[in-house]
Amino acid sequence: KIDIYTFLVKYEPNLHSGSFLLPLASPESSTKGNFIKVEDNNPGYKLDNFCIPKHYEEDLKRVLVPAGLVADRVERVALDIVQDFQEEPIVALCVLKGGYKFFTDLLDRIKQLNSHRNKSVPLAVDFIRLKSYVDDKSSGQIEVIGGDSLENLKGKNVLVVEDIIDTGNTMMKLLSLLKAVEPKTIKVASLLVKRTPKSVGYRPDYTGFEIPDIFIVGYALDYNEYFRDLNHICEINEAGKVKYATKS
Ligand code: HPA
Ligand code: MG
């Protein structure tokens, strides 16, 4: 004997996310609002609870998101992506340089799922390099400073893989550049979204963590190219900002 609730939980595992109530909703609706929220009052972790490169010990305030938690969350984002795409081929577009760790870890997980499920998502990769930050301030302009011609993305399912959505300006500009080459679909996965009053309101299709309005480094996120060689997502301190400020 199986009651309706058991039936739904068994055959509609996304019931709790509301997708059962919205059978006609587009696939992203069940994942767009699904992220780990790091609250403003979250103290994070003491630096000496973790292994931190010796050369950065004096330059950080705290660990905000440990690398192990990033790995666990990335695993789930990968699952959400393959469930949405089913068997549609994707071109994963890595936004360099900050996106490279999330990109490789996310693609490793998708590849793993591709050989452990009865459906698989063919993957191609592409890269684009953008620059908008000097010190801890957005320059207000984005520049495309590398990558293949975007023309190659015409007619493709493009999955943009980004490290962080801060104001959202960079992503809005990138999306308008991409739309101009007419991909079949465009989805965006961002490891982090910052809660900032400067936000233009943009929300990616897949989000790892929503974080407070502080400048963070590590897991490929930089401050003037430093701290990419730090595994954990950490808050930089004032000494670090001064030590690695642009000298110009
Ligand atoms: N850290 C590093 N890079 C960034 C950030 C940040 O907090 N926001 C936008 N780019
Ligand atoms: Mg950067």
TrEMBL record:
The reactions it catalyses are: IMP + diphosphate = hypoxanthine + 5-phospho-alpha-D-ribose 1-diphosphate
Instruction: Enumerate the Pfam families for this protein.
Output: Pribosyltran
Q: Which cofactor names does the annotation list?
A: Mg(2+)
Q: Top-level EC class, please?
A: transferase
Q: In which pathway does it act?
A: Purine metabolism; IMP biosynthesis via salvage pathway; IMP from hypoxanthine: step 1/1
- What EC number(s) would the UniProt record show? 2.4.2.8
Q: Which GO terms describe its cellular component?
A: cytosol
Q: Where in the cell is it found?
A: Cytoplasm
| InterPro entries (UniProt xref) | HGPRT, Hxn_phspho_trans, PRTase-like, PRTase_dom
UniProt keyword terms in alphabetical order? Cytoplasm, Glycosyltransferase, Magnesium, Metal-binding, Nucleotide-binding, Purine salvage, Transferase
Q: Which residues form the Phosphoribosyltransferase domain?
A: 70-223
GO terms of molecular function = hypoxanthine phosphoribosyltransferase activity; magnesium ion binding; nucleotide binding
Q: What is its main location?
A: cytoplasm
CDD domains named among the record's database cross-references: PRTases_typeI
GO biological process, alphabetically ordered: GMP salvage; guanine salvage; hypoxanthine metabolic process; IMP salvage; purine ribonucleoside salvage
- PANTHER family for the chain: HYPOXANTHINE PHOSPHORIBOSYLTRANSFERASE, HYPOXANTHINE-GUANINE PHOSPHORIBOSYLTRANSFERASE
- Family assignment? Belongs to the purine/pyrimidine phosphoribosyltransferase family.
Query: What is the protein's given name?
Result: Hypoxanthine phosphoribosyltransferase
Q: Identify the species of origin.
A: Mytilus galloprovincialis
The organism's taxonomic lineage, starting at the top: Eukaryota, Metazoa, Spiralia, Lophotrochozoa, Mollusca
